[in-house]
UniProtKB/TrEMBL annotation:
Protein name: Glycosyl hydrolase
InterPro entries documented for this protein: GH (IPR017853)
Gene3D superfamilies hit by this protein: Glycosidases (3.20.20.80)
Origin: domain of life: Bacteria
SUPFAM superfamilies xrefs: (Trans)glycosidases
Amino acid sequence: MRFGVNYTPSRGWFHHWLDFDPDEIRADLDDIAGLGLDHVRVFPLWPVFQPNRTLIRPRALDQLRLLADAAAERGLDVAVDGLQGHLSSFDFVPSWATTWHRRNLFTHEAVVEAQAAYLAALGETLADLPGFLGLTVGNEVNQFSGPPHPDPDRVTPAEAGRWLRRMLDACEAAAPGRLHVHASYDAAWYDGTHPFTPAHSALLGAMTVVHSWVFNGTAQRYGPRGAATELHAAYLAELAKAWAEDPARPVWLQETGAPAPHVPPGRAAAFTRATLTHVLDCPDLWGVTWWCSHDVDRSLADFPELEYDLGLFTTDRRLKPVGEALARVVREWRAGSFAPARPRRVALALDVGGAEEAPGRRVCAPGGAFFEAWVAVAAEGVRPAVVPAERAVDAAYLAARGIEEVVRVADVTGR
């Protein structure tokens, strides 16, 4: 089991690439290593690293390598995101793909070729580092593909799949054998019209990545103490397995956090422990990477309110209760206080109108019939898995996952 954190610098947020200070970075990494974590996920800003379609800045790559080396000195492995893309409500798209040079991020050949070259440059920069985990294509790049983005780059599911394969192939060619993945926000799992699909997440890349945020309507509907809120990360981890061809395909909980006011500050530590306790019981979980290491300085303007205080540390590097809660769970896990996850013997059958594009996946969203049935079963103390309805009578598949009983939504809801 891997435990890590998404690294948000304590000074300057991700704009720190413009004023790169190795001493500040080392101090931040000392904070992180002191919690007993084993990896960081880091975020080069795409326009800073590739300001022109044919210019990938060597100095920026050198700075990324310096950060990775500093992490390695502290026993921290490094995962790197490429196309940033989108972070904390801000878009970072280079000028050569916007306004006067507006071209589709997913389908325009010159843009796609440049993206692949950029990912390759990142991979080549770190390929010889033993602690380099791999590349994530980008942070929730799927949000560019449709509503609610104000200026979307429209794409079909087939085009999205081709783009993802092209990006992942570039990552693998540059740094063979590493854990190269892609990451979508939860429209991929919850919106039947969204072109990035659950099948893309569960079939492409070295493992399936989920981002679990309870400000998506979960905490608003069920409350900060609700079973659905505390189970949300575990639910997404189990939902993701329904689309995997390999019954043992790993799942990476790459983002989860305690966003105020949806989770009140006084509740954040308890929410953290509950979230981790539930998700650590999911078989084939590769690891958890908490969002995020340090708060956002309130001198920086225009962030959504919930983004400022998500850190394990304040901007002056004081450990917060949420950081203490995470560190305590990590210590207990490594001391053997948590029982290893066992196969989930009971599964809920999921019908989304076909696995490939899953047009009915709205039932999986908070408030949806499947979501509520799964939470109801879990709240009774059962450990439910998820299986596709079309495989609910596939004895070999069920046996491979250790499932002995399949329950229908109607069996739970009475409808």
